[in-house]
Design goal:
five-stranded mixed sheet; 13 helices; 33 strands; elongated; disordered C terminus; binds zinc ion
Length: 645
């Protein structure tokens, strides 16, 4: 009896341990059996999905994303918004992709296949089948679960927007019926758009992947089993909790590398898996070292990387449309083996995509509605990580005398893009893909760096860490980020965020006219006496100059400014200005002239779109080499914008 009690207690303890060990609330539980059919460029699969109604109301319908239907024809919302598919894509039936639900029903119960409906909550486009609705015969009460069994066929498109195949390379992403997110009793389940990413609930994934034996497979989560089947195929089973998506890849030309990565403080132990395409093997060491840098940077700055694996996938050159994309514990990088070594694109993409394990993976905001919370926070982190590991001024390019930082490139991107949208906006409602990218990535990152320079590095570090700690494994919004920033800094920051996040305006402060004019001796009638400067000339009195510095606010955004004024004799004055009015004038009487003036001399306000007008000399300088360097950088920046991350 005693033994039984003891064992029961032990079991309860173990059960309690496993419950408290869950990092997230498990809303979904996916058990998927998938078989790659290379000759059909498709995956045939069955899915058992258990979904928890975590709301306070009964739910009588389920909504699912069927993302691959974006590539089904040229009338889907994705395709209509894209409008630039190559002819090559259109001419072959094999190039299109789709999700076909062959059967869906309640486990051991009603068949619901006939209840499938396609809805278009964003634009009413009846040709779009990227959101599926199923009405349930009985509602799911609050805190109850429902288990469905689904058979589906995922025809992969020729690689486009992160997913698909090229020859025998397969990037199987956004490939299975995935529930939307129930919020306040309503489904948040957007259609797949050209400029939008994803949003899903946390849970458990166990995915069984069967491929022809010669294929090398990489997948989200930890490999828990590997079986060599008698029919020339292999089956790999991957399992991971506390994630909200699952992607995998297969290609016979991957070369696989494994390395155990450990960090003492904070404690991290994770298995690095590199799947490097045979044609890019020379990039292997660069991938490995930048990935280690990334794990260290994010773990030290935000919190220890908690997952047992991280998998880097290096797509072949012609599969690069799948490159630079994040999934939980797995990401695709950019195999820029054709670019010069001094261009650190592979490092930057590796760091950026790993970083999404934090901003997207664990802190899982709604990427459809507030993409900046993933891309902006992650670009901010990436710029800092690149500066730390590759040098402040050369973190993107170091080729002989040419040095350009990741920060410089972000500034150039913002400079080169018309200010038509704010940072916070539904992803698909931006003026263009370029406007979406510039605002949610670069302008958001520059905004956060400007805030960091304003509040101080320590305060900003604490804000980011607290935000991660408070919101990991949840779905925070912009308001939640602002609340943490105000909480930690102790400042009311509405004046800052209201302007920078919700207005499309730009920030640009400039030095206006500089003047140094000699103050004339008294001339004319003063107190009834006629005076002329001629009389005093002999006295050879010391000259006095009226020195005038004008600062102009050329943009709508208002931000406090520091101004450095330097006089001919070396005297320096620092002024502060709240930046509110359209212009501000400082006047100094000195026996010497001005030399120069500079607004924001340390370039703390990195979101200022034009540094060229930030300083001015009284005597115009000779031609500045800065001008042609900038021209060169702008050309280079155009090349980079072709790559989206
Ligand atoms: Zn990103």
């Amino acid at each position: 009896m005693k033994k039984t009690v003891w064992m029961t207690l032990a079991c309860l303890f173990i059960l309690n341990q496993s419950v408290s060990a869950a990092l997230s609330k498990h809303i979904v539980d996916y058990r998927i059996k998938a078989r790659l059919v290379p000759e059909e460029k498709a995956v045939a699969a069955s899915e058992t999905l258990t979904w928890l109604n975590d709301s306070k109301v009964s739910i009588s319908e389920l909504q699912f994303h069927l993302y691959l239907n974006a590539f089904k024809n040229n009338r889907s919302t994705f395709m209509k918004e894209s409008g630039h598919l190559s002819r090559d894509f259109k001419k072959d039936k094999e190039n299109w992709g789709y999700n076909e639900i062959r059967k869906i029903g309640i486990k051991d119960g009603v068949d619901l296949t006939a209840a499938i409906e396609y809805i278009q909550p964003d634009d009413g486009n009846k040709d779009d089948q990227t959101v599926m609705r199923i009405s349930l015969p009985e509602p799911v009460p609050p805190q109850e679960k429902i288990t469905l069994e689904i058979e589906f066929y995922a025809k992969l498109p020729k690689v486009i927007a992160r997913s698909g195949f090229f020859n025998d390379f397969f990037m199987v992403a956004q490939w299975y019926p995935k529930t939307g997110v129930l919020q306040d009793g309503k489904w948040n389940c957007h259609q797949y758009h050209r400029s939008s990413e994803f949003f899903a609930d946390f849970g458990v994934y166990e995915v069984e992947i069967t491929v022809p034996r010669e294929y090398v497979v990489g997948a989200t989560g930890k490999r828990i089993k590997e079986v060599d089947n008698s029919n020339g195929t292999k089956t790999y089973i991957h399992y991971q909790e506390d994630i909200h998506d699952f992607a995998w890849t297969a290609c016979p030309d991957f070369v696989e590398f494994h390395e155990l990565y450990t960090l003492e403080n904070p404690p991290v132990k994770t298995e690095i898996i590199l799947l490097v395409h045979r044609s890019h093997l020379k990039l292997k060491d660069r991938y490995l070292s930048s990935l280690k840098n990334a794990i260290e940077f994010y773990s030290q700055n935000y919190g220890a990387y908690p997952y047992p694996t991280v998998t880097l996938v290096d797509p072949p050159l012609k599969g690069l449309a799948a490159g630079g994309m994040e999934y939980p514990t797995l990401f695709t990088t950019f195999g820029a083996s054709f670019l010069p070594k001094g261009l650190l694109l592979s490092e930057m993409v590796t760091i950026h995509e790993f970083g999404h394990n934090y901003w997207y993976g664990m802190v899982a905001s709604n990427e459809f509605e507030e993409a900046w919370l993933d891309e902006g926070l992650n670009s901010y982190s990436e710029i800092k990580a690149m500066a730390r590991y590759y040098g402040e001024d050369q973190s993107m390019i170091k080729m002989g005398p040419l040095k350009i930082s990741d920060l410089d490139l972000s500034r150039l991107q913002v400079m080169a893009t018309a200010q038509l949208d704010p940072i916070v906006k539904n992803s698909w409602e931006f003026y263009s893909g370029g406007s979406y990218a510039t605002n949610t990535y670069q302008k958001a990152a520059l905004t956060l760096l400007t805030l960091e320079n304003y509040l101080g590095q320590n305060v900003m570090a604490k804000i980011m860490r607290t935000y991660f700690e408070r919101w990991k494994f949840k779905h925070p919004t912009t308001e939640d980020f602002i609340a943490v920033a105000e909480d930690v800094s102790g400042h009311d920051l509405d004046w800052f965020f209201d302007q920078f996040l919700w207005s499309p305006d730009k920030l640009d402060y400039a030095i206006g006219a500089l003047r140094s004019e000699e103050v004339k001796e008294q001339e004319g009638i003063f107190n009834g006496q006629f005076k002329t400067s001629e009389e005093k000339k002999e006295k050879d009195k010391e000259k006095v100059f009226k020195n005038e510095v004008n600062i102009v606010r050329k943009g709508e955004l208002i931000f406090p400014q520091e101004i450095l004024i330097i006089f001919e004799n070396g005297e320096k004055i620092r002024e502060k200005w709240d930046g509110r009015t359209r212009w501000k004038r400082f006047v100094y009487y000195r026996p010497y002239k001005l030399e120069s003036a500079c607004v924001d001399p340390e370039h703390k306000v990195v979101v200022d779109v034009n540094y060229m007008n930030n300083s001015r000399h009284l005597k115009p300088n000779k031609i500045s080499p800065l001008k042609w360097t900038l021209e060169l950088m702008l050309d280079f920046q155009k090349i980079l914008t072709l790559i989206s991350l």
